[in-house]
Amino acid sequence: MVDLDLSPPEGLTVSLWRSLLLNVIDRVAPERLPPLQLTSKPMPVGILTGELLELPWYRTVFSNLADVISPDMLPPLQLESRPVDVGELIGDELDHGWWNSLLGNLRDRLNPERLPPLELTSRPVTAFGADASLQILDWSTLITTPKVFLPDAPKAGGQVSSFEPAAPQATPVAAPTSPELLMARLQMTRDLGRTRFRRKIWIGLAAAEAVFLLVALFKFV
Predict the structure, then answer these.
(1) Residues of the chain with pLDDT under 50
(2) 9 in helix, strand or coil?
């Protein structure tokens, strides 16, 4: 297993002034590094995609004509691997008629293919924590006896007859109302009434303006 270091980088714990000072030092006196030495040879990849897009249209037209008239003669492709027999492809199977699928299903049902027994080369992996803790299964998976449903307990009657007089119910006492709450309620009701009145006025003005614009439009047109 590789020890993964998930801690944040050191640059996040550097203070602001220290980071600013290090950036100024790198700007004024950068570190002198040795020249880069390439040990691999560059591979010719031809013209890049960005440069190809920047070419004028007449160059691409002539290059396309040249590719059509005299294309590059490439050597034949040599396959070093052997093809694997994968059977019939899915696209070819979908192109067959429904009767081929019906006959194939009947053949597999009556005379299935005899496959060799499966040989497992790996050992089963134990569950996480099975060697340190006990895993208890559900009782429903352990009990093999049939399920027995017991009858429900009898319910008590809804009405009980009794000769004793019913206890008198207490009359709810109205809670004392504070005058401050009454004043706040009246003020809120007054504000809501004013708001509704202003809304009706603004709606009337907007409707009148719309009617005036429509009349002026049809009159001058």
Answers:
(1) 163
(2) coil
